[in-house]
Design brief:
single chain; 2 helices; 75 residues; mainly alpha
Length: 75
């Protein structure tokens, strides 16, 4: 993915398409696919910035036990 689709651009595309088709955005149209891609990009960016460290060390000082995420974080 060279340039992710921003939500503002997808909204602009969807608005123009809806105006051309009496307020309806056809299923599978470029506007629908653009909005889908933009929302997926937005979720990825939001999830990446708020994601907890997977399998981080125990914060209580005690080991969590086998299979409970007490592995050191990846570098």
């Amino acid at each position: 993915m060279k340039h992710p689709m921003p939500v503002q651009a997808a909204r602009r595309i969807q608005s123009k398409t809806a105006k051309m088709h009496s307020g309806i955005v056809p299923k599978g149209s470029f506007a629908a696919r653009a909005m889908s891609a933009a929302m997926k990009n937005k979720v990825r960016v939001t999830a990446a910035s708020k994601a907890p460290v997977p399998n981080g060390p125990s914060k209580t000082g005690n080991p969590s036990g086998g299979g409970r995420g007490n592995n050191p974080p990846r570098k």
